[in-house]
Design brief:
Residues 19-89 form the Transcription regulator PadR N-terminal domain. The chain has 109 residues and is of the alpha+beta class. Helices cover 62% and strands 17% of the residues. The chain has one domain (12-107): Orthogonal Bundle (Arc Repressor Mutant, subunit A). The chain is globular, with a radius of gyration of 16 Å.
Amino acid sequence: MNIENTKAQMRKGVLEFCILSVLKEKDAYTSEILDTLKNAKLLVVEGTIYPLLTRLKNDGLLNYRWEESTSGPPRKYYGLTEIGQSFLNELNGTWTELSDAVNLITNQK
């Protein structure tokens, strides 16, 4: 069994939740989202995040707007929709339950 594959699958499982969480306070463009994830030690490549952002937008969880940049081309800023905020609230509850259950099981002696 390949441990790296298992670790990658675990990260993928929480990536959507993490992206929505990054956007809960303010809109952000892709580089900001990636930097936040990297600072939290959740390494994600651009080839992974762009399709995920598109899917989240198509599902009605995110919207976006273009904003001019002083240091290059316009930037696409993503933000949560009302549906996205509700979805995130549900995920928060599920994460707490799941995290508590996993901690209970893995910390048994």
